Amino acid sequence: MPRVRIALTVNGDPREADVWGGESLLHALRERLGLPGSKNACEQGECGSCSVLLDGVLVCSCLVLAAQADGHEVVTVEGLGDGRRLHPVQEAFVATGAVQCGFCTPGLVVATADLLAQNPSPTDDEIREALSGNVCRCTGYQKIFDAVRAAAAAERAG
Ligand code: FES
Ligand code: FES
Ligand nearest 48 Cα, by number? Predict the structure, then answer.
């Protein structure tokens, strides 16, 4: 099967990869670009564990062809922190005990960071709506809500 070379920006760095025509962006990130933070749980757009930002828009990377990302900008969970410190959303998830098996966490962190960038003071309904595409099988969601509220408060406090 022929491959195509794609060139894209990932977490601020120019990257290239040779991908199959039908290959997902999720697969390319994990298997070709060394970024396993985005998780592969359903590969059907149902769970949100593969969430990334594509040109600043939250997407399920399992539903995006890698070839569609050619020439575009991708931010994964690995790109949220500054390399030395966790992102405030990551810190809040750890501090509130919102991480159990952790499989849903990268997608939730990316979705939460996206929410708070657009809406620094979300209501509970707005949090519920923003995270409605992210499935967690472990926590019952209460601690995830606590984490989002804590991250919002921390970011507002600067
Ligand atoms: S792996 Fe992409 S939505 Fe579940
Ligand atoms: S912590 Fe296990 S799926 Fe969410």
Answer: 1
Please report where in the chains the tokens 């992102």 appear, as a residue: 87
Secondary structure, 3-state, 45-63: CCCCCCEEEECCEEEECCC
What b/e readout covers 93-103, taking b as 16+ CB neighbours within 10 angstroms?
A: beebebbeeeb
HSE on the CB side for 10, CA within 13 Å? Answer: 26
50 Cα: distance to centroid of ligand 1 (angstroms) = 5
pLDDT digits (tens, 9 = 90+) for 72-110: 999 999 999 888 899 999 999 999 999 999 999 999 999
Q: How far is the CA of 51 from the centre of ligand 1 (A)?
A: 7
Structure tokens at 14: 């120019």
Radius of gyration for the alpha carbons in the chain, expressed in angstroms and rounded: 16
How far is 32 from 97, CA to CA, in rounded Å?
Answer: 32
